[in-house]
Structure formats: C-alpha cells, structure tokens
Amino acid sequence: MYKKPLTYALATGLVLSPMSLPVDAAKPAPNEQADHAFDNKVIKKISADNMYNTIALLSKQPRAAGTEGEYKAVQYIKSEFERYGYETELQPFTIQEWDGGSAAVSFNGDAFTGDVHTFNGSINGSATGSLVYVGLASADEVGDEVAGKIALIERGSFSFYEKIQNVYDKGAIGVIMFNGEGQSGNAFGYAYEGQDIPTVAITREAGLSLVEQLTNGSVQASVNVENAGPIDKTSYNVIAKKEPHPNKDNGQIITVGAHHDSVPNGPGANDDASGVAATLELARIMAKTPTDTELRFVTFGAEEKGLVGSYHYADTLTDEEVENMVAHFQMDMVGSRDAGELIMFTPDGNKNLVTDLGASAGARISGAVDYGELGRSDHVPFFLKGIPAALFIHAPLEPWYHSPEDTLDKISKEKLQNVAEIVGSAVYQVARPDTPALENARVAPNPADYDFDDRPL
Ligand SMILES: [Zn+2]
C-alpha cells in the first residue's frame, strides 16, 4: 500500500519532475491567489512579540535536561498549551547522568586540598603506591615501571581511553591526570569499561607541581573514589494534540516540534527557546483554526543529549500513527540575529514533502528557501520512521552557539516572524479543511523551485 505522504504528493503535483511539468508552469497558477488568502489566515495572526516574550521567559536560566530549569520550562509550556485549549500530555523518560561521588587524593600522607574530579566511568575504589610520571602516556612512554604504581599523566594528543589503557596494561593501579597546556580547570575525563582502576583529574598547576616534586625524590600517592556511578534523571516531552474537525477528518497527522532543553552552561535563547516560542505561537493560532488533519505540537527534552526525547517519542508511536504521520516540521534555532539565512535540512539530503511545502510557502511569503543535508536535531527519529521530516534553521550558525552568550538580546523578531510564517503556512496548506481534497487540483500548492545548498554550519 502507498504511504499517505506519497498519495498526497502525487495528488498535489509536488513531486512532479521537471520533465512532467506543464509547459506553462512558470506562470502563476490560478490557485496562487487562493493560497495567499489561506496563508493570510495564519500569517496575520502571528505575533513576533508573543514569541519574543516566550524566549525572554524561557531564557532566564539554563534548561539542561533533567534539571529544575528544564522542569520549570516544561510546566510553562504545558500551561500555555492548555491555555490555548489543547489536551496536553507530559511524557517522562529517563536519562542517565554521571555522578562523580567523592574523590580524595593524598601525597606522602598529606591530604591534597585542591579540587579533584572523578572521571566519568571511573570505578570506585582506592589505591596507594608510588607516583610515577609518564608524560602523555603514549605506549612508548609507558614502561613496566608503572606496575603497582599510580600513574601521573598529562592530558592531550590522544584519547583518555588510550592513555588509561596504556598504563593499565602495564599494571598501574590508579590514574591522576592533569590538563594540557592552555587548558584550565579539572572537570574532564572518561574511563571505560574494563579499565578497573580509580581515575581522577586535577588542575594543570597541581600536576606540574607534582612533576617538579618527582624530580627531587619519590612521592607516595593514594587515590580514593567513592559513590561514583550513573544516576537516573527524568526529562520530559510536552505533547499537545488538536483533533481535526469530526466531519472532515482525513486521518492524517502533522507534527510541529522544537526542543525545550538547553546546554547546561547557556540560557539557550536561540537554541532552542526560539523554536519553542514559534511552536507555541503556531499552536495558539491553530487552536482556533478548523483543520481536517490532526495536529500535534511537541517540545522535546534532552535533544542536546543526543535527541533522547524525540527518539523516545518516535518509539512510543504506534504503527498506525507512523503510517498516518505525513509531515514533521522541526524548528531549531530560528531566531538568531547573527546567523545566516533560513535553510531546510533533511538527514539524507533529499527533498521530501516537508521541504516541498516549506519551499512553496517560502516562495509565496519571502522567497526561495534552499535545502541541505544535516541530522543533529529532532527531525532525525521521524525520518528514521519513514515520516517526511525537515529541520528549519538558519545557517551558518551564530558564533555564540552553545555558549552563555546565547541570550535574548541577540534574537531577531524579523527572523522569528519569517520562520513562523513559512512553517505555519506550510502546515496549514495540508491541514486546512479544503486540502487534501486530493483530487481537487485547484487547491494544490504550487510547486516551487528550490535548490540544494551545501552550506556550512
Ligand atoms: Zn543545541
């Protein structure tokens, strides 16, 4: 059987090849005016100020997945959806974080008073022995002399895994690592399964002082790691559903999404409070707009941890829901003053129904929108389920991507407005009650010419 997107695309002519276009395709088609009229039903209601105010509220603090900041954002988004009249669900899921427990180090019997950080993945346990400096701990630098001793290692040049494995293979009983040149702090390090010795990090300054001490004589060291291990935290997706008009239900579902979590060290005004703001704004408008298509507005948690929330959401869909989902629109980083032009990314770099609709809406509203190839956001799990999906984003990215500088003052209301108009019109093209009256060519969107762009991020 055909998947519904294919049926829709064929009926609307969106996937016609240039060969099969009618000879007068370049002329404005008779339905163009009708499309504009329909676009205006959505566009005229979009408020950039609403979106800006949402970003202002969400970007007051970081919203890293599993934190209080995320939970506050989730509660706000849920309450907004409910205020618009949506049936709204919080969908919890588990994410794993590393808890470093407590780490202590001593030298020649004296407790070390500087900061000690447990490597992610370190075993718990204690080890006492002579300290031996092995430089960067390349295989060449590490000899049998580390057996039964604690290895002091400088960070850099190759992986944590190799450094630890090299000393572990030679019988070291613990690792103390310090930062390389130009690196500050001590919050780093990963140990891996089977590397069964306690592993900790100290600052470069503290490490170099130990190297100095070792040139003057031996140092007895002990390393103790307690209560380190993975801990479960809860992140959430927020899902708002709008049923189609009961007499006009065409059985199709469109999803519109963004991610509400941020990186831990940034307020995430553009990444991705902007997408959440646009999602909420479109939800607000669509709540009062009759449709023949089920609409789902979803904000995902833990995108920054590897699309965890969207994978969870996609995994909870029934086969029937997947079959009925005709399009997923993902808006991630859609309001930066300092980023490039709008682009639509698909994970395989191919056009699909969503990019066709986005390009067509763009052409009607503000001009052509190019497409390109990129995963890295919540459109991926939908794509992997066979659902046409695309990421709407500005590229190249702004310089303060994933930094504490991703703040409200760098948000462009014009960009927010433009993306919300294009996505809103594209969604409404399918969801409005007179489409898909698939057989009715008068209401088909005009195919737009749009190009592949190998644009760097
Ligand atoms: Zn991000």
Molecular structure report:
This protein is α/β, with parallel strands linked by helices and 457 residues long. It folds into two domains: 306 residues, Zn peptidases (Aminopeptidase), CATH 3.40.630.10; 127 residues, Glucose Oxidase, domain 1. It contains twelve helices and 16 strands. The strands form two sheets. Strands 1-10-12-11-13-16-14-15 form an eight-stranded mixed sheet, with helices on both faces. Strands 3-2-9-5-6-7-8-4 form an eight-stranded mixed sheet, sandwiched between helices. Helix 2 crosses helix 12, helix 3 crosses helix 12 and helix 7 crosses helix 12. The longest helix has 19 residues. The radius of gyration is 27 Å and the shape is elongated. The two termini are 38 Å apart. The N terminus is likely disordered. The site of zinc ion has 3 residues, from loops.
CATH architecture of the largest domain: 3-Layer(aba) Sandwich
CATH class of the largest domain: Alpha Beta
Distance from N terminus to C terminus (CA atoms, Å) equals 38 Å
Please outline the major beta sheet.
8 strands, mixed
| Ligands | zinc ion
SSE succession? HHHHEEEEEEHEEHEEEHEHHEEHEHEH
Q: How does the overall form come out from the CA principal axes?
A: elongated
**Oligomer description:** single chain
- The radius of gyration computed from the alpha-carbon positions, rounded to a whole number of angstroms, is 27 Å
Quickly give the structural class.
Answer: alpha/beta
The amount of helix comes to 25-40%
Strand content: 15-25%
Task: Give the number of domains.
Answer: 2
Low-confidence stretches: 1-28, 437-444
Counting H and I runs of at least 4 residues, what is the number of helices?
A: 12
What strand order characterises the main sheet?
A: 1-10-12-11-13-16-14-15
CATH topology of the largest domain: Aminopeptidase
- Going by CATH, what is the homologous superfamily of the largest domain? Zn peptidases
If you average the pLDDT, what whole number results?
A: 90
